[in-house]
Amino acid sequence: DWEYEVIEQYGRNIVGRYRVERTAEAEEERISINNGARELTHRLPAEALHMHVFRLPSDNNYWITDFSPYLNPTRLPQSDSLVTLDMGDMSPCVGRVRVRGEESVETGAGTFKATRVQVECRFQKTSSRSGQSTLFLDAWYAPEVGRVVRIDKRVPPSSPDDLGEERESYRLKRWQGLP
User: Backbone dihedral region of 25: left (phi > 0), alpha (psi from -120 to 50 degrees) or beta?
Assistant: First the structure.
């Protein structure tokens, strides 16, 4: 089981929590958002890089990005490569992924030696051309945990009528068991 806090980067407020647990089916995970306000199950991806996007139950404009690699860092690309990531009810995010090497990263669950992965990709928020946005992700994967332990997400405004830049950090709060 892995528990995360979602922290908005402007006021450092915790705006959500989610828990990921492995189901009896080894290839599935169950995600519980904000103490069961929304629950979903999804199959673990076969590909090395995958993004799972879901909305917070209290705010349709607010989305959580759960990013893998899961379980095996040796499947990460060793240099820059192209990537297409699923964005739920938005268009796929198409761009580049870069593996930056090992770093020490702090979370509520402790400090971990983790592989940093950077993603920069473009996606369509709405059906209009002006709704095109860029997503910047930094994700730190810790082999001892078997998942990412921190994700920093930034989406600059795509048009003047946007509410502003989205900046969140997803940080592991607790985990138990072996990956």
Answer: beta
d(CA 177, CA 27): 16
Distance CA 104, CA 101 (A): 10
In angstroms, what is the C-alpha Rg of the chain?
A: 16
Task: Give me the pLDDT at residue 143, please.
Answer: 84
Burial class (CB in 10 A: 0-12, 13-18, 19+), 107: buried
How far apart, in Å, are the Cα atoms of 136 and each of 5, 22, 156?
19, 28, 9
For range 58-75, the mean pLDDT: 59
Q: What is the pTM of this model?
A: 0.80
Biggest distance spanned by C-alpha atoms of the chain: 47
